[in-house]
């Protein structure tokens, strides 16, 4: 609250057009004012700390980067209310939630995941702005689910609120408006009591809105060609190769095996040209601080351009030499490999990101 003296000073310096604002400031309800006054800042000492965990050793860069397949709408109709096209992702059960095994460690037991028709991350939905969509999530898993499209102003029945669960044996059709400008959203489980567990075990995927304004910019394009989603997650494995569970964990699970599109530390062969990389932090606790180096100069970070964040394109590209991506955030970058023909580059993470840094 402003003191009487402060309020008088403010009023004197305001122009007449600001008087409404000044009046508004003095009409904050008492309950709200006391609630605001009662806000206690987080104590950094309370933040979850990085925990050293002991997953079995994994051979770096032993497998190629998988690219989640683009989802295919089964049919398209015109919404008679909005007159907009609706793409229906309901036919092929590509969004059927069910368990599958992933052989993460070649000589150990497979890990049991729960993803979408045997895949995690799930298929990437790519829709143009102004085209509506309906996605059928079928629950063939062994516990309830609820799907949240993170970043979408979805109507309440389709927003995946935690108690709006779909039980095993049921399905739900989610309707999405897609009226925002081009941007990177993501879908993930949000079921009450199970969100972290379900997301960590595989229920997450990318959702891209495109638009003609973005198309005009000449950015590296072609999904899976020069426009590459990089869905990051961090997991922990038991000594037998099975996935360590988040269940019972009440502070954080940092994980020590970094996955990109579901594959630990993959390699990716690129052409000497510009690429658009779309980063999503789908980890349940770990933040990332990413940077590029060459294999021969690992202490020299190579500049690159950030072009978009959670809300789509920035006003202009921003050149950086590292990029922090907190849990659930999306950032898109353009990296130019044209000077690096025949060379090996590493995309690295500062292990301590989020742990006091
Ligand atoms: Cu979310």
For the largest beta sheet, what order do the strands appear in spatially? 13-12-11-14-19-16-17
Percent helix among the residues?
Answer: 10-25%
Order of helices and strands: HHHEEEEEEEEEHEHEEEEEEEEEE
Instruction: Give unreliable regions as ranges.
Output: 1-24
List the ions, cofactors and other small molecules found in this model: copper (II) ion
| First-residue to last-residue Cα separation | 33 Å
Radius of gyration: 23 Å
* Average of per-residue pLDDT values: 90
* Fraction of residues in β-strands: 25-35%
Number of continuous helical runs: 5
Overall spatial form: globular
Largest beta-sheet characterization: 7 strands, mixed
Total beta strand runs: 20
InterPro entries: Cu-oxidase-like_N, Cu-oxidase_2nd, Cu-oxidase_fam, Cupredoxin
Protein name: Cupredoxin
Pfam family, one: Cu-oxidase_3
Family: Belongs to the multicopper oxidase family.
